[in-house]
Inverse folding.
């Protein structure tokens, strides 16, 4: 049985899980910084960098422990960021493979990289405020 906060009626979250979620955001941010300060795009460093891959694995392994808490939305936010960016990289890569598509594919990669950066910053700021992330219906 999960403990309930008397004030908010929300399930209580252990400090260890909050710290783990900060670490997961840090792993994703490290991958993004690698992409920003190297020859790689942000998006390719995010998707292929070990820190982000480890972070997504942790998300899936620990997901049941955060179920029903505000951290559940953060885990979903991080997982969705990873998989949606992978989809857009595949689309952009197919476009880049054609000469005409390069004009569209490279900007898609740049926009997706900026979108990833936005999602990491927004999510991490919400976590610091102990707020849940908005999730689609």
């Amino acid at each position: 049985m999960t403990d309930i906060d008397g004030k908010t009626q929300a399930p209580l979250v252990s400090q260890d899980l909050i710290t783990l979620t900060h670490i997961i955001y840090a792993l994703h941010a490290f991958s993004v910084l690698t992409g920003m300060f190297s020859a790689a795009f942000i998006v390719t460093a995010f998707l292929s960098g070990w820190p982000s891959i480890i972070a997504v694995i942790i998300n899936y392994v620990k997901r049941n422990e955060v179920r029903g808490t505000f951290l559940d939305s953060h885990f979903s936010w991080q997982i969705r960021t990873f998989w949606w960016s992978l989809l857009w990289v595949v689309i952009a890569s197919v476009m880049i493979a054609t000469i005409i598509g390069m004009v569209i594919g490279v900007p898609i990669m740049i926009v997706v990289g900026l979108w990833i950066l936005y999602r990491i910053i927004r999510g991490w700021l919400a976590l610091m405020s102990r707020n849940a992330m908005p999730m689609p219906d």
Summary: Residues 15-128 form one domain.
